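Hey L., structure's done. Input below.
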Amino acid sequence: MAEFNLEKSEKNDLRRAELLGKVVHLKDLVQYQDGTVASRMIVNRKAGSITLFSFDEDEGLSEHTAPFDAVVTILDGECEVWVAGETSLMKEGETIIFPANIPHALSAITRFKMMLVMIRE
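Output:
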C-alpha cells in the first residue's frame, strides 16, 4: 500500500510542477463533478498550502474549525458561508478569512469554485 501512496504523491507533485512558471486561470485547474466536491492542491509546503475546490450545486462543507486562518476566494459561482453563526453570501471575486479555531461552514447556492489558502504557523 505504501508504494501506491508514494506513486500517487509523485504524480501529484508532477502535476503541481507542470504549473510552475506558467500563467494559468485558477478556475480552469479544477473541474465540476456531478453530485460531489472535487479538489486539486496546487501548492503544498510546510509553511502552507493552496487548494482549489469545485462544488456541485447543493454541496458544501459542514461546520468545522481549523487550527490556522484560512483565506477563501470564490473563483466562479455563488455560495453561502457561515462564520461563528454569521451568514454571508459570496460570489466570484470575493474573499473571506475564516479565523483559526472559529466554527465555519459553506454551501453551494450554484455550482462554485474556490481557492483555499492555508498558512501554517
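The radius of gyration is 15 Å. Helices lie at 2-17.

-- N.
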